[in-house]
Amino acid sequence: MTPASSWTRRHVISLWDVTPAEYDTILTTAASFTEVLSRRNKKVPTLQGQVVTNLFFEPSTRTRSSFELAAKRLSADTLNFAPGSSSLSKGETILDTAKTYLAMGTDIMVIRHKQSGVPQAIANEMERLGTNVRVLNAGDGQHAHPSQALLDLYTMCCLLDEKNPRVELLKGKKIAIVGDILHSRVARSNIWSLTAAGAEVHLAGPPTLLPKGFANFTQPLNDQTNTDIPRDLQMHWQLEPALENADFVMTLRLQHERMTDHMLPSLREYHQQFGITRERLKLCNPGVKVLHPGPVNRGVELSSDLMDDPELSLIPQQVTNGVAVRMALLYLIGGGR
Length: 337
Ligand code: NCD
What we know:
Blueprint: H1 20-37, E1 51-56, H2 62-73, E2 77-81, H3 94-103, E3 108-113, H4 118-128, E4 134-140, H5 146-160, E5 174-178, H6 185-196, E6 200-204, E7 233-236, H7 240-243, E8 248-251, H8 267-274, H9 278-281, E9 289-291, H10 304-307, H11 315-333
Parallel strand pairs: 1-2, 1-3, 3-4, 5-6, 5-8, 6-7, 8-9
Helix pairs in contact: 1-5, 1-11, 2-11, 3-4, 5-6, 5-11
Bound molecules: N-carbamoyl-L-aspartate.
The site of N-carbamoyl-L-aspartate (NCD) has 11 residues, from helix 2 and helix 6.
């Protein structure tokens, strides 16, 4: 396994400046954890004695459970914070909540919040206080969802070379990201990783859900411009040009909770124009695979039968791989041995 000592990042908040070599470190480390997870005893003592706290200020099924299981497989002690039953409802600030968990000896904080920038703000506070706490962003507003993009990357690379997943496998591959790009932190993080890998990234969605600024996607919220890595994106208001000869199709949930006004005529019409179906996949390269971060609106973003077709859908693998990838992140930033 790659020694965690070769890893220099303290926090993982965004992927904007992650290098191909760092992606490869994450992929190789995740592959060794996939091997661990295939054993009868799926636990390793890597983070024994450390406390991993899940601070999820926004609802989540798979990301929270996946981080919790990853931490447990690494033998860490885990704490779970749920806003509904917490002192937040008594007026405690987010930073004070974080400091409460710091005082209990938390080593790694995994943070999700509906507001962009909260994980960064907590990371800054932890540094200002001179602590050694590390922060993993588990999704903040529309800004970033690094662990999701990394598990997507891992899932695609493993499909191309299961034993030796690495970013160069995606060089020149055409990847279509379809749907509600505007509200999607998953799309934003995937754009960083896939373009760094040298993939050809095509975005498709209705004009109301496709931010025009993405044409020059060099400076997202809280990030600095990085001109070293090409960020060429192709944008389409129709589905077909994005699907033609695509190797992977990444579908996104329509994020109704983030939509301000009538951004869509109707779900039926959306499905007619942008829904992924078996018929439409005929435009893609043979062997095309479909991804979705979940939760899925069945029959809206993609047809229900497609979602359940193991020949076409990578959705179950994404969930399975999420645990290994999050173990890799916890191991690397946790300085595990
Ligand atoms: C995504 C999220 O929460 O950003 N889901 C996830 O983490 N698996 C995407 C979504 O909510 O649509």
